[in-house]
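Second attempt. The first submission of Laccase had a stray character pasted in from the spreadsheet, which I only caught after the job came back as garbage. Lesson logged: always re-copy from the clean sequence file. Corrected sequence (563 aa) follows.
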Amino acid sequence: MGNCKNFSYIPFFFLLCLLGTFFFLPIEAAVKKYQFDIQVRNVSRLCHAKPIVTVNGMFPGPTVYVREGDRVLINVTNYAQYNMSIHWHGLKQYRNGWADGPAYITQCPIKTGNSYVYDFNVTGQRGTLWWHAHIFWLRATVYGAIVVMPKQGTPFPFPQPDREVNILLGEWWNNDVEEVVKQGNKLGLPPNMSDAHTINGKPGPLFPCSEKHTFAMEVEQGKTYLLRIINAALNDELFFAIAGHNMTVVEVDAVYTKPFTTQAILIAPGQTTNVLVQATQVPSRYFMAARPFMDVPLSIDNKTAAAILQYKGIPNTVLPILPQLPAPNDTAFALSYNGKLRSLNSPRFPANVPLKVDRHLFYTIGLGMNPCPTCLNGTRLTASLNNITFVMPQTGLLQAHYFNIKGVFTTDFPDRPPTSFNYTGAPLTANLGTTLATRLSRIAFNSTVELVLQDTNLLTVESHPFHLHGYNFFVVGTGVGNFDPSKDPAKFNLVDPPERNTVGVPTGGWTAIRFRADNPGVWFMHCHLELHTSWGLKTAFVVENGKGADQSILPPPKDLPPC
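This time the job returned cleanly.
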């Protein structure tokens, strides 16, 4: 091909050169198209039938299969009575917040009878992610897996499995979830907890009327299986285990990890975990089970969802064996398990941890109470970051930022809490009022950010999984008690910390994360416990545009839903 220039004056050779260039180009990225119809369907679980919101009548919804480098077009048409928006959880959406999906943050919702095309590229990411409704509590039934396969010819950095299986962990309410939430809000109290946990939409045989609502996967002796596990539950961190079988963790939140073997995993709402399982046990039927982790005395749905791993040729009459799950309040297991997570940090998949920090942020997580004359006790339970309860706007924050619409939000979210106190000391039950506001934090383009999330004992300590949209971050440190800025940073892991999009802040403890703010836009950050999000445990970062041509927010698509 190097001689093409010598023949450029001869049209025939010029054509040959063009064709040659065309044929030797690497394979271009594909365009994957999906149609998502938001439809109400009657579904029966636990002896109760009810109408639920679904995508394409499926519960859970369809899996989105893409390859790293693909462009994805998903046309969402809303036939349900609720407004709808869908978030592609963990996809970075570089410069393209318009496709991120959280209602009133990056878009106004898709109204009944309308459509919107989520148009995005999957760049520099591969692994298990997921999608879910990002408005009200509709993600109780509107969710599904995203499987991003590596580029053609790029193997996994672990033994190639014989088969892959998606495992989506969820929650089920017998009553209409939106009504349950309305009732709770009216009283100023938490809504009724779920009636069951589910595995791939099915509670399993430990629940009534669930013989046919049990997920089963067949395995063959000697084969290796990759389980892509997603916690799509609304409010519960979950333990997951398989009787008689160890699991090797190889990826979390679509980032490869140093492999380690464990009898159980802990997975918070919003997180994904890929594990390898080898079918090398005595052929039989084995339960896979999921049950909540809760290490404070709060009431939760503590029932166990079960599915079946069944060796080929074993009849259904064989009773399955139950796994040993950690105790529901096993804090030691939780801390030890999360401590084993490390980025692979190989030459092909490096961990580019920011070593110097431009901006230090310290956010306290608190529960609170605000006056509510119509509520049951004259007060409403609430939640806050740095004592600010986030108020959702009526216009998308990204639109307000992009079009410079005044009066929608301010950028004076404080870098620190208004007052310092013994955050994790005795429970604080006085002065629990919070400030209600739509306050965001402005971040300079390409600056490095360290954010310490500190749990507090306002009302009660509790574990909180935090999700940042538009970014992955490195979990450089975590600890129990109050963060000590003079001692704790010396213990940070700046070599191979886990890289995630959702991280658990331990009960009565803290977590430190770092990221480089190289994705301009308005990016939501919130607790992924739906209850706390709805109470105001959320904020957003306004990341400014850079100076380069490809460092500013892309223009909005023509079909962006109007507010």
